Amino acid sequence: MSKKNKKEVKKNKKANLKKTxxxxxxxxxxxxLLIPIAVxxxxxxxxxxxxxxxxxxxxxxxxxxxxxxxxxGFNMTSIKKIFHYKDGIVIGNYNPLPIFTFLIxxxxxxxxxxxxxxxxxxxxxxxxxxxxxxxxFLVYRIFLLxxxxxxxxxxxxxxxxxxxxxxxSVAWVTERKDVLLGVFYxxxxxxxxxxxxxxxxxxxxxxxxxxxxxxxxxFSKIQAVALPLSMLAIDYxxxxxxxxxxxxxxxxxxxxxxxxxxxxxxxxxDQGSLAITDDVTDYSILQRLVIGTFSYCVYLIKLIIPxxxxxxxxxxxxxxxxxxxxxxxxxxxxxxxxYWYKQKKTALVFGLAFFTFNVMFLLQVVGAGxxxxxxxxxxxxxxxxxxxxxxxxxxFVKQRPNSKTFLTAGLGIYLLVLSGLTFQQCKIWKDGETxxxxxxxxxxxxxxxWGNRARWKxxxxxxxxxxxxxxxxxxxxxxxxxxxxxxxSLGKTYFDSNRPKEALENYNTAITIKNDNPEFxxxxxxxxxxxxxxxxxxxxxxKAIELDNDHDNSYLNRSLVYSxxxxxxxxxxxxxxYLRLKPNSPDIWYEKGMAQxxxxxxxESLLSLTKAIGFNPNPNLGxxxxxxxxxxxxxxxxKAAAQQDLQAAQSRGAQIDAxxxxxxx
Length: 665
Fold this sequence. Notes:
single chain; mainly alpha; Serine Threonine Protein Phosphatase 5, Tetratricopeptide repeat; two-stranded antiparallel ribbon; 32 helices; 2% strand
C-alpha cells in the first residue's frame, strides 16, 4: 500500500470515529463518560461531607450498633449470630448484611476504641457515604444501558446523587440498609440488562449473577422483594413480549420474594413493629388505603419540591380532609399510565412502573413502625422518576434544539438549589438532640420526638432537668391516651438524679396504666431498694422475673438485694441467671465470685474471679486482681499466686488493704 493510500485510510478512520461519537470505545476507556461521573462523585462527597462528622442518633442506632451484642468481636460466633434467622433480628427486621458491615466498621475500621470502650461514629458515616457513591456510579451505568444520551444520564445521575431525599439513607447510620441494598439491587439490574443483551453462551452466567445479587439484596433489606417486578418493567422497556414465559423465567426470583416477604411480615408482627404506637387511633381499612394514596402522592410532589424534610413524619391522630383528595389523584396517575401505555410511550411507562413497583410495599397500608412516611423509602423507587426526567430532557432537546441552553441552565440552577438543601439537611443528623429538635419544629405534638429528645439529654448530655421537662411534654402529648413508657422513663430520670420518691410516683403511675410490663416492676424495685425498703424491692423484682424469665436487669438488682440481706446462695443463683443471658459481663462474674467466697465455695470463686479478669481492658480490673489475691492468700493458701495478683492490682491503681499487705509479707 502506498503512503498516500495509508494516509487516506487513517483519514477515513478518524472521520468514522467522529461520526459515531466514539461509540466503539468501551465504557472504561471512554473519557467522555468517565470524567463526568468522576466529577459527580466528587461533588456528592463534598455535598454530603457534613454527615461524616455526625454522631450516632438515639433512633435505632443504639439497638443496631451501640447495644448490639452480636457485634462482639470479629469472629465466627458473632458472624453466625448476625446471620441466624432468630439471633440476627433487630427490631423485627432481618437485615444481616448491614449488621455485618457494622461489625466490620467496629472491629476493623476504627469504629470502637477498646481501651476507652467508646464508639467512634466517623467510620460508620464514611462507610455509608462510600456505599452511596457506589450506588451513584451504578445508576449512571444503568441510565447509559437504558440508552439515555450521556448528557441525560448525567442529569439523572446528578438527581439521584444529590437530591435531599437521599440524606436520610446516607446520614443515618442505621439506614446502611438502604445504601447497601442499593449496591446489590442496582448491580442486579445491570446484570439483568446484560443478560437480556448477552449471547447464548453468556446468558446463564448473567442469569445466575442476577440471582446471587438479588439474594444479597434481600439480606440487605426486605424492600428488595420488588426486584422481580422491576425486571418485568425492564423486559417491557426492551420490547420483550409480555407473556407467561417472562414470569416462568423469574420463578426463582418470585419464590425468594415471597419467602422473604412472608418472613419479614412475621418478624415484624412478632416484634410488635406492625403496631402504630405514637399516640394514634386505630385506622379502618379504608383509611389505611387513603394513607397509602397520600404517601404515594407526597413522594411524587417531593421529587420536584422536597418540602418539610423531617427525619420522622408521625401519624396524625385523625386524617385531615386533604388526605381524601389523594385517591382520585392516584386514579389520575393510573389513567395517565394507561394512556402512555396505549400511546406506546415506553420510557414513561417504564419509569412510572419502576417507581410504583418499588414504592408500593412501603406505603404503610399495613402500618409498620411509628412513621406515616419516610424519605428513605424513595432511595430505590426514585430511580424510575429520575429516568423520566432525564428522558424528558433528551426528548425536549431533540424536539426543540434551540431550547437546550435554556433548559440546561434551568436544570443547573435547580440542581444547585437541591445541593444546598442536601448540604444543610445532612447537619440535621448531627446528634439525637439536633435531630429530634428538628422533628419538633414541624411536629410539636409528637410524643415520640419529645420522649427521644429527653432520653438523649438524660443519657448523652446528663441534662436531667432538660430531660424531665421533655418527658413531661411527652406525657402531655399523650394525655388523651396515657403512655406508661413515658412515666417509666420520667421515673428513671428522677431515680438517676437521686430523687427516689418522685421516681416511685411515676413508676406507680406506669404500673397503673400497664401492669404487665416487667421493666416497670424492676425499676420500682430498684427505687424501693435505694430507699432501703428491701422487702418491697424483692417483691417487685420477683414480679418482674415472673412476667419475664429472661429479664436480666431484675436478676441483677435482686442479686444485690439478696447480697445486702446476707442471702448469698440466692444471690449466686441470680448471678447465674443473669450470666445465662449476658455471659460477657465482668462485673457480674466478679459479684458471683465474691458471693461464692462468702459461702465457702473457694474453688468456684477462683473460677469466677478469673473469668472476670479475662475481660481486659476493664476499669475495675485492679479490684478484681485484689480480691483474687485475697482469696488466694486467705482461703487457698497460695501465697505466690496472691503476690502476683497483688502486683497486678497495684499496677492498676487499686487501693490495697493493710491486712492483705500484712498477710503477704
